[in-house]
Structures are given as C-alpha cells and as structure tokens.
Write a structure and sequence with these properties.
It contains 6 helices and 6 strands; from the N terminus they run αββααααββββα. The model has no long low-confidence stretch (mean pLDDT 86).
Length: 180
C-alpha cells in the first residue's frame, strides 16, 4: 500500500466519524444542559463536550487501523491501551468540567493521571539529538526500574525519559487548556 493511502485513509475515517458524531454530541450536550452561557443574552447556549466527538473519531480510527493492518508491527498493544485509557481519563475529566465547572485544582487531576497512564504504558521520549553534536544522540532511557509485569509484559520507570515526557505532555495539554 502506498504511504499516501496510509495517511489519507485514517484522516478520511476521522473526518467522517467527526461529521457523523458531532451533531449527536451537540444534541446530547443540549439535552443534558452541558452548555456555556453566551455573554450576549440574545444568543442560544453553546453546547460543550466537543472533546467527546473527537474521542469517538479517535477511537474509531484506532479500531479500524490498529494492529498490523498496514504492517505497523512496532505499535505494541500496551501503547494503544495506554493511549486509550489516557484519552478516556481526559474525556471523562473534560465532560465533568463541562457539566460542573470544576475548580482549577480538580481540573489538574485528570491530565496528570492521563500522563502517568501513558508513561507507564511505555510511551516516552527515549533520546534527543545532542545540540552540540547533531550526529550524536543523548539517550534518556539508561536508568530503568521494572514496576510490574502484566501478562508477561514489563512496565518500567525510565529516568530521565519519563520526566521529560511528563513535562512535555503537561506543557502541551496545559498550553491548549490555557487558551480555552
């Protein structure tokens, strides 16, 4: 299969899923009064929960294109499961925040849990390019401690890779959250 097909197919499935599920999510948000009140009283309330539609599209893409469909054998099931659990935690936190306008202290809990789930699943930055010698790499996964084994798959704490991954994901998540 061509690499263009490998990129375009998931994109088309994601867009189609979003177009199908977004109107449904808008109706659900309106029905359960999960809306933002506009500053102009003449306008209708604005439905929230847009992240749920994105989540459903992502989930459909994972289901349709996971495994070795395109010969991607490096993607381990623990990575996919880790991403799905992490994203689910974010969506649950987002829906609860949309419905109950959680205070900032409680809003921090969901992204932190999601980041930790992703890191424990083994996703992270294992090396960076040395800025003083670009042809050499700096490996960040040299210190490893096995936390537990589940179904024969080890889950490890990897320093300093996990710290960099935590900071990177937190900055990305909170930069978009602060724009909201």
């Amino acid at each position: 299969m061509s690499s263009l097909f490998m990129v375009v197919s998931p994109l088309v499935v994601g867009i189609a899923s979003g177009l199908v599920f977004t109107p449904f999510i808008i109706r659900v948000a309106t029905r359960f009064n999960i809306t933002a009140k506009p500053w102009n009283a003449d306008r209708n309330p604005i439905p929230l929960m847009g992240g749920v539609s994105i989540f459903i599209s992502f989930l459909i893409g994972i289901i349709v294109f996971s495994g070795t469909l395109f010969g991607i054998e490096d993607i381990r099931s623990k990575y996919i499961i880790g991403m799905l659990i992490g994203v689910t935690v974010l969506v649950v936190g987002g829906v609860l925040d949309d419905k109950y306008s959680l205070p900032a202290k409680k809003q921090f809990i969901f992204p932190i849990i999601a980041i930790l789930v992703v890191i424990v699943s083994g996703i992270g930055v294992t090396y960076v390019t040395n800025p003083f010698s670009p042809e050499k790499l700096i490996y960040l996964d040299t210190l490893q401690k096995e936390l537990f084994t589940f179904r024969g798959i080890p889950y490890r704490l990897t320093l300093p890779a996990d710290i960099l991954t935590f900071v990177w994901l937190a900055v990305i998540m909170y930069s978009t959250k602060l724009q909201d």
